[in-house]
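Deliverable D4.2, example record:
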Amino acid sequence: MNAVEIEAAVSDLATEPFNAQEFPYAFLAAFGNKDTALKRLRTGNNNASDYPGGVLLRNNIHIAVCDEGKVSETLTALLASPSTIKAKAKFVLATDGKDFEAKDLISDELVACAFEDFPNHFGLFLPLAGISTVKEIKDNPIDVRATGRLNKLYVELLRENPDWAKADRRADMNHFMARLIFCFFAEDTGIFNTSGLFSRTIEQMSDRDGSNTHEVLEVVFKAMNIKFKDRDATQPRLPNWATAFPYVNGGLFSGSTEVPRFTRIARTYLSHAANLNWKEINPDIFGSMIQAVADDEERGALGMHYTSVPNILKVLNPLFLDDLRAQLEAAGDNKAKLLNLRKRMARIRVFDPACGSGNFLVIAYKQMREIEAEINRRRGETHLRSEIPLTNFRGIELRDFPAQIARLALIIAEFQCDVLYRGQQDALAEFLPLNTENWIISGNALRLDWLSICPPAGTGVKVVSDDLFNTPLDQTEIAFENEGGETYICGNPPYIGSTWQSDEQKDDLRAIFEHRCKNWKSLDYVAGWFIKASDYGKHTEVVAAFVSTNSICQGSQVPILWPMIFSSRQQIAFAHTSFKWANLASHNAGVTVVIVGISNKSGAPRRLFSLADDGSTLEKQVNFINAYLVNGLDVIVSPISKQNDGRGLMEWGNKPTDGGHLFLTSGERERLLIDSPEADLYVKRFIGAQEFIRGEQRYCLWIQDEQRDDAEAIPEVKRRIEAVAKMRAESKAAETRPAAAFPHRFRQIQSVAKKYSLVVARVSSEERPYLPVGLEGGNVIIGDRNFALYDAPLWNMAIIASRLHWVWIGAVCVRLEMRFSYSNTLGWNTFPIPTLTEQNKTDLTACAEAILLAREAHFPATIADLYDPETMPKNLRMAHERNDEVLERIYIGRRFKNDTERLEKLFDMYTKMTASAGSAKKGKKK
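Output generated by the structure prediction step:
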């Protein structure tokens, strides 16, 4: 279930007659628990409660319904219950049907309210559904409720008006929804002067069956498009009941006033939505949630698309807000300095070329208004109208409806800021009518000229139109309100790896990159925004910062993208290394992202943000941030074919190319050996990717050239060899056909161990805290889905299994979605290893042995089982911690603070290592 569905279920539960016996199960059902789990709870099988009548779901919640007036006493008893602790409950809850009390045992947050009000606190309990909660959701559930109500209305209207769902009418439908949202907000905030004007008009003037609701709304919308002085001359005249509506226009109510037809159910949904308190709406969050209402693909994920304010501020603060606050602090009460800062802010332009529903723009606007309000307070000018124009907050959005919502969210944000900083009276006096200027463009950001939409000075694309929400791209140029000023580009563009890009998206990238480089096709879609921003910077000073998947700063994309950016005089001004950009999706861990700010401004120190091991944010001011987001020189890591420093030689596993004929399942092996026991000489255990990670059992025929005749004397073996020969001879791959001459063996044999092999998976999940590396006997054949070090000293395993090596691989090797793609030449041979003493090697060998013994203690658990970050055994985790401790002390004499510090050291060593190697080559040539 998503947040919107949960809110609706909880609200329904609060309005139903209270059933003491059923409440715990109904509450759990509202948060997505399935009937089968609830059935087991009812029978007592899974109920871990030790409280009379209590219901305790392990790792979830302890609930008790009590006698009237005993709620606080019961909650205290649940908190003290040994079962609550033993079952690792996240919450305790007590209610008598009149009062409601609950506590979050992790955050220590307490809720105490009337029973009917507990849905207002539903956000507290979202972790019960596996949803990572956000503070704004818990503090302001109106946004989720509004989204749910509007979604029901939208779906019902499309059901009744299928023609409005077609492509040629979808814009009309979205425009209608934008008008409704404005009306809901306007009547609850005093913009309509009369309290409840809109909802009361609908209630009184429309029939209960909904048959004339569309006619009433059409009249209301028409009224708000006619100035008061022109209403008497309007034909047909407005009915008296509509004359109380103000003139709004601004393009919002111009054009067609046609409204889809309503059913009785649709009218009910309209009333339910109108009856919410829209005064509490938060444009920071509402826009990004409501855009899903109008998107068929996103509606299933309703309420999951909110990006938290703290995450957005990770972009905006270092981009320019920190500097504004520092200037405010430096100005103190100096009125001249404060005035200069206010004038500077009035000329700042914030441009989001992938603005969606306007989150970044809204947050930037509200933060700047807060700073401006403090300036005015210190100058004794709190009455002044804001000098920060909305039209300085510009955006491009591909889809029409989010662009509409972005404009509406900014309008709402402006009004709310006016009320907060200047008072309701002044805010209302200056709010209407809305202007007709368009500053959010609907179009393809990778195809549009950013300089024409947000020029560095002078003029820009603004439309004076009869319809603010239907914007042509052939636009009139209109001067900015405030000439010149600074420009900051920001946003969270679509990432989309090369594999998942549509033909149209590939064409977008082709238009940008084809004339710049040959191997652009492997770039993520977001790379287009970085290049467009660097091109923009060729014409003016600018700082641009985008959220991106961390893949653009790792592996093969680095040498393609970043030399182009750096060659355009851009440098990385600030960066936030990898962290989870989570949303409200159930059980969604979030995508791993980075934030990268690029700038052509010189002189300012570079700011590098990272997460410490304890989860806190660290900031470091550095001279240079390289393309891997490391404090270090501008360096690109290149493959090294072989190292001569004593480390083991890592080779590919053996490649069969056999059509599957040389392989046997456990059952096939058993049958073969029953029929032909002598075949045991030619059957060996095979380790491919699944066999290594998940412990699957598979076998292969391994026949030496001198053994072929004897092996073919076994009918089943001969049959398989002949099948391999046929498959290879008929292969479409030219490199495979010659191998038909030796069908008894693998097409490519790298090596076979004499005693043992160290095995490293070629592809593995980044969710695992360590890279999968293992030890296999000499009689095992390693497949080409793995790399292997044959008979290498065991201390090599300690290095591969370390956190140090994990972060290096994550930085320099290719990423496949959320997986590492390991490389022997790019990952292992480039990994900087200091000169190891014999004692170092002995210590590391002991660490590797301890890791293997810790794994053995949990046999038959597989690598996948053992390295699940949620369930990794304590003794294995401690063995790895000890390994990291020993290795990191070899590097710097102590543990590293975090991964950023680890990478800084490794890149420093890599730079010196490659420099000395280069010097050695030059010396040999001389």
